[in-house]
Every structure is written in structure tokens, then in C-alpha cells.
Amino acid sequence: MQWKKVLTSMKPYKPGRSIEEVTESYGLEKVVKLASNENPYGCASSVSEFLQSSSMPFEIYPDGHATTLRKKLAEKHGVGEESILFGNGSDEIITIICRALLDDKAHTIMPTPSFSQYSHNAKIEGAEITEVPLVDGLHNLNAFLSAITERTAIIWICNPNNPTGNLIPHNELINFLEKVPKNILVVLDEAYFEYVTDPNHVDSIKLLERFPNILVLRTFSKAYGLASFRIGYAVGSSAIITELNKIRNPFNNNSLALAVAGKALEDEGFIEKCRELNHIQRERFKSFAAEKGIHMYDSQTNFVLLEVPIDADEATEFLLQHGYIVRSGNALGTPGHIRITIGTEGQNTGLLKAFDHLLKEKGI
Ligand SMILES: Cc1ncc(COP(=O)(O)O)c(C=O)c1O
Question: According to the UniProt entry, what is the EC number of this protein (predicted)?
């Protein structure tokens, strides 16, 4: 086979371990997954009720235009319906963006460590990649500007960033956007937008008129609690969306996912409640880290990146044995740390107890 050469140096995406697998291999009665930043409160009860009662003509293709959901989201964000692109998760939108703009002559800039799919997809397209190291968990936007060349096609901004959780101060983002040439697409991946509680944060969709070269990514996988349905979307100028739409597969969101996402939008109270509960629990992690004298990045998301006193893989293994699945920083480009999804109050109590146990074993 004439595989793309780059594939020889690549590996398939390795997801976190599943509850079933861990339960079986460790012989545990109860396992809590705090590894993929899903919503520990599930989804809005109206969505669950809808799922139990809804019936659909499963033999019919989905609405490839996502008409109803498109209308609802356009209204929610105050944008035109032609400004939205739907993806099978925002993962698919990242793939579409790379297919549309990158080839072996193009250049792209991204933070590191950050969400793996930017570099994964850029590599497949053969683009030259400049990875700009974070500084204390934050994007080094000046270094991004210095890295721009005539061939730069995409700049990726993960805000708040995964895996550190840090949010770029709004004025810094604006200063940066003012300096980026308008022929470069700036992707603002905001998968964790709904969890941000910083009062100075501004909805970047409101920046679209001022900066028509930005594309904002959002998802139903996190705060909306619908990760299994695979539905994410991009909001941008109609000119950008039109080009990206040429690459999108015809029926990339299934009928149930479209219906469920639309239903979820009717219960913004659920999102507010989750944001509030998550904030309270995030503060708990902050106090724990301060009390124990361990480093924790300043998160505005539903996960925290915590320092560990031993190798991150070993710490992850220790917590697995206690029934908690978390992500080792070794796999995320943050050795010496583990990433923990903020769970419910009860889940966090158990996790912090196990973590404390780990610290005590190490004499901390
Ligand atoms: C920063 C970021 N972007 C995008 C995604 C992909 O989300 P999804 O494809 O579920 O919409 C994730 C998932 O973890 C993420 O952390």
C-alpha cells in the first residue's frame, strides 16, 4: 500500500480506560471515571425524558442541514444561520479545518501542551507545525505572533486550554487578534466555555464582526453532558463556513443527536447549575492543593491538573487501584501532573481521600 509517509510515525488516538475494563481488571465493585472531562451530573432531565419517549423514523437519513438545531443555535448566539457548521463532535470540525487549509506547503501554529487533535490532523495533511510552549499554563501569544510566516494558514488557540485549564485574559486575546494578519484563520477552541466563571471573560462569538478571521468551536460533549452523541459546532463568518461545509460529510450528525442537542438548549438552567456546582468543587481542589503544598494550574474548566509526588503513570495506577480513573500527565505532555475531571461532591471526596492516601504513603 502507498500509505502517506507520515503515518509510519503516528499512533491511533488512545482514549482513557473505560469503567468496564477497569472494574474487570482490578476486581473493583465501583469505579468512577474522572478522565475525559465529561459532565458528572449527566445531562438535563428534560433530555433524558425526551430520549425515553421519542420515536423516530430510523430508516430516514438525518437532516443534513440540521435545520432545527441550526435555528436554535443561531438565535442563542445572535448570528446568522449560515454562520454555523456542525461536526460529529468538535473533533470532526478540527479535521475539516485541516483538510480545508493545510497541505505540505502550509504552516500552522499551536500551543503545547494542548489538545492533541490539532497536531494530529495537521501532521496527516503534511503541514509544517510550530508548537509554542505554554508559560505557566498560559498561551505565549507574543511567541505565536513571532512564529507567523507567509505560509501560516491556521493558528490554534485552546481557551481555556486542555490540559492546563488556564483561560487567556480577554484583553490579551484582543491585542493578539488585532495583530494577526486577516488572511490567517484563528481557531478559538472553546470546548469548556460553559464552565468559565471569570467575570471578565467575554463571549468570543461577539468578536466575530470585529475579527472575521476567527472561528469559534463549541461542543455538546462537556457541560451539556452529551459526549456520546458526538455533536460539536463552529461559529464563523458565512464565507469561512461555506468553504468548510464543502468538506463536511453529508449526514455527519445522526437524527437522535440533532434532536437531543436541540432539547438540551431549552434547559440553560441545567448549564448554569452545572457551572455553579463545578465552580464550588473546583475551589475545593484549589484548597486541597494549597493545604498540601502541591501545584495546581489555575483552571476555568471542569478539570484540574494537579502535581503528583511520584511518576504520573504510577500515581494514575495508584488511583486506579482505588477505583478512580484519571489521566496521567505523561500522556498529555505534562509529566509530574495528573489531570482529574471535577466530579460530584461525593466523587471528589473519595478521589481526594485516595489522593491524600497517596501523599501520606510518600510522606507528604
Ligand atoms: C479542547 C478540546 N477541544 C475539542 C474536544 C473534542 O470534543 P468533542 O469532539 O467531543 O466535541 C475536546 C475533548 O476533550 C477538548 O478537550
Answer: 2.6.1.9
